[in-house]
Amino acid sequence: MMISQLPLAGVDKRRRPLPASFILRSVNDAWKYRRAIESFVTNNLRRRYRRSALGFFWGLLGPLLTMTTMAIVFSLLFHADIKTFTVYVFSGLLPWAYTSESAIEGSQCFVASESYIKKLFIPKLFFPLVSAGTDTMNFLFSLSSLLIIAVALGIQFKLSLLLLPAIIVVSATLNLGMSILFGVATVYFRDLTHILRVTLPAIFYTIPIMYPATMIPDQYRQWFLLNPFYYLIDLYRQCIYNGQCPPTLDWAVAIALASCVLFAGLLVLKKNEHDLVFRM
Amino acid sequence: MTAEIRVENATLRFRTYRNPSPALKELIINTLTQRRAPDDVLEFDALKNLSLTICGGERVGIIGLNGAGKSTLLKMIVGIYPTRRGRISVRGRVTPLIEVGTGFDLEMSGRENIYLNGVLLARSKTEMKRREQQIIEFSGLDEHIDLPIKYYSSGMVGRLAFSIATMIEPEILLVDEIFSTGDALFVDKATDRMLSLFDKSQIVILVSHNMSHILEFCNRVIVLHKGEIVNDGAPAEMVDYYYTHIAHREHHPYDPAQPPIVTLLETFAPCRY
Fold first, then answer.
1. Model confidence over B173-190: pLDDT tens digits?
2. Residue A195 and residue B272: Cβ atoms within 8 Å?
């Protein structure tokens, strides 16, 4: 037998912003629905690879083939050193794809779940968790492909690779935060997804992903360094490509970014969670 | 511990917007050009200052015209609609039989959908494992259970949904006009199942337009009209009241000579999945 106190929309304003109780409730909700999250993420992945002979193996094979093609094309066209170039580009490109996909897909997380929200009582946090979880699993697939390619190309991995899980946790935190933030915002402004779709590629080119950081002219460098995503991508780059422990500044900026975005997301969710169902 | 539902001065306000989701683009342009967008909010209270206490043992029927707020009240008790003012406290595990079949995935097999539905209703995997066989047996789907449900007929989907939703030990049961589905064979089983669920539940709230159900199953009836409780009391009196004061109909369709169970053969509202 349980006693439940249903949420009340009207009385929330008197409370402090984002009290510890809300965070506790969020964690509790996530834990209570962990099985549902797990099965939704699995279903999302399975739906993608359903009815193909290789099944989940496509998750690995897809990025593998794309990367191989690009590596060959670039090394032939630009005479880049295939070994270093491939690993350089993809150690930045994959994390970026993960981040921007999470923002775009995540922005749809509530809007696309309208029928669930209107018919079942599920904690609202469930939907961004599923969205971020699916993207994270896809990222793990493509990252594994990169590591396979790197091994095939004869790259020696350093101990720094052991830091990768920690970096992924930072990324996942950021992406969960973005899913919540953009997900709620899209309920109110349905064109946000489209706006993200055009603005994110612009940000992409301000980060040294397809080009080396040394190519940035010195007089503009300070502007490039203002972009917090620069440091997040650099974390991956240092860890996978350079084989060294990323500098403290990278960690500091990335962790600060991730926690701020998640905090902002939870704040926005708390403020609006009782209104979402009326806006569907 | 007995189940209890307590609603105090609850008001549920729907806000409809002429432009439900303005574009961010418009907002920015309006702000920049100092043009105030007209306030297009249309508010209406689906439930007004509603107070209600339901204790263990009560079988409450809710009757009223379309749009009176009956289903909304159920959804408010489940927690789908948050109240604007007031307080709701619910003691006991709530099992809603509202929109049965929500969350079905057409691409997945019946068996997979059993688990998917289970997790959505926050049931544990062990509980679902224990019930899986019962659900399959009850639904009568046999060997079809491992087929993607997009190949099912709507009757089969309905049977599966009903079997999952009712394979429970409810404390508080909320029923919104669903009684049975499928062919005559299944309807008998389903009716028995509903009756046994009613027996086992501590509280049943039944929303129905079928007065014979209301009279047969309920020991208390609430008449809702335009979001307010206009009367609350013994079933026979309330049904009379409903006909004379709300529905303005003289004719009383309930004929005690005919056992109402037979009239349970209503078509199952096609579930959305």
1. 998 876 555 677 788 888
2. no
Residue B106 scores a pLDDT above 60: yes
Distance separating alpha carbons of residues B144 and B159, to the nearest angstrom: 12
- C-beta atoms surrounding B173 within 10 Å: 25
DSSP state of B39: -
Q: What is the 3-state secondary structure (H, E, C) of A118-187?
A: HHCCCCCCHHHHHHHHHHHHHHHHHHHHHHHHHHHCCCCCCHHHHHHHHHHHHHHHHHHHHHHHHHHHHH
ipTM exceeds 0.90:
no
Helices vs. strands in chain A: H and E counts, helices first: 12, 1
CB contacts, 8 Å: A36 with chain B = 119-120, 122
pLDDT tens-digit readout, B10-67: 999 887 776 666 677 777 777 777 766 555 677 888 999 999 999 988 999 999 988 8
Contact B81 A192 (CB under 8 A): no
> A215 to chain B nearest CA, in Å?
35
Q: Which residues of A touch B122 (CB under 8 A)?
A: 32-33, 36
pLDDT per position as a tens digit, B215-235 = 988 999 999 999 999 999 999
Q: Using an 8 Å CB-CB cutoff, list chain A residues near B87.
A: 8
Q: Is B24–A192 a contact, with Cβ atoms under 8 angstroms apart?
A: yes
Quick one: pLDDT at residue A212?
A: 85
Query: What distance lies between CA A40 and its chain's CA centroid?
Result: 17
Residue in chain A closest to B75 (alpha carbons) equals: A119
Q: Do A39 and B115 touch (CB under 8 A)?
A: yes
Inter-CA distances, A231 with A27, A224, B152, Å: 28, 10, 52
| pTM (predicted TM-score) | 0.83
* Pair B141, B120: CB distance under 8 Å: no
Q: Compute the average pLDDT of residues B195-219.
A: 89
| Positions of chain A with pLDDT under 50 | 1-15
Q: Which of B11, B6, B8 is nearest to B84 (CA)?
A: B11
Chain A: closest CA distance from residue B165 (Å): 13
User: In angstroms, what CA-CA distances link A28 with A22, A24, A32?
Assistant: 10, 6, 6
Place of tokens 């014979």: B212
